[in-house]
Amino acid sequence: ELARMLIDQGASCALVETSRVRRDRETFGEDREAWARAAFKGKTFFQDHADAVAGVEAAAMEVGMGPIWIFGFSLGGIHAVLAAGSDGLSFTPAGIALGGSGYRIRSGAENDLTLPILDSMPGSDTLIEAAGRLRAERLVSFYGSLDSTFPEDTCRRLVELAPLPQEKKNFIVIEGADHAFRSLKGNPSLKPLEMISSRLAPLLF
């Protein structure tokens, strides 16, 4: 949905999907955990990271010399920070946008760390160090005030650590939005994504 909104505002978007054993998510209905265990069985974090970076590089080749932004949601944002904070990318992004990405999950969400990929994630220090070395021209991070996965301070800290001028980095709280930016004050809504699109689009051009 967010990609469609940005396309409507003149952006060109590519979606990067990492490899998985199964793609029939609809088979599992609302059981996100069962789907994740089946789809990513045996896959490690660094295998997924390599997939994500390869996808970004392939998209960048299609764009050529134009400015490239990377938007990473949740785990995707962690991949983006690690890639931009190391020698993982062959180019310096014009910007990095994060959505619900922090360096440590809430204590009540720790069961998620038993899922494939997440069960082999590097420690918080690795992500913190990468944020301090991040290479990008701009950084913006969106956070839903009702996020039940990451505490706000762990998301805000990644922005604070980025070695960019203060005017080139932003931390934006979407009041009433959940972790997935798919609900507003507990009700299904596209409004959070519309708010993200309206704040992000002016930075892209």
What does this structure look like?
This protein has 205 residues and is of the alpha/beta class. Helices cover 38% and strands 13% of the residues. The chain has one domain: Alpha/Beta hydrolase fold, catalytic domain (Rossmann fold). The strands form two sheets. The protein has a four-stranded parallel beta sheet, with helices on both faces. A hairpin with a 2-residue loop joins β5 and β6.
Poorly predicted sequence stretches spanning 5 or more consecutive residues: none
- Tally of discrete structural domains: 1
The portion of residues assigned to helices is: 25-40%
Order of strands in the sheet with most strands: 1-2-3-4
CATH class: Alpha Beta
Provide the β-strand percentage band. 5-15%
- The CATH topology is what? Rossmann fold
SSE series = HHHEHEHEHEEEH
Looking at the overall shape, the CATH architecture is 3-Layer(aba) Sandwich
User: Globular, elongated, flat, extended or rod-shaped: what is the shape?
Assistant: globular
Tally of individual helices: 7
CATH homologous superfamily heading: Alpha/Beta hydrolase fold, catalytic domain
- Largest sheet entry: 4 strands, parallel
Extended strand count: 6
The end-to-end span amounts to 20 Å
Output the structural class: alpha/beta
Kindly report the average pLDDT value: 96
Q: Could you tell me the radius of gyration in angstroms?
A: 16 Å
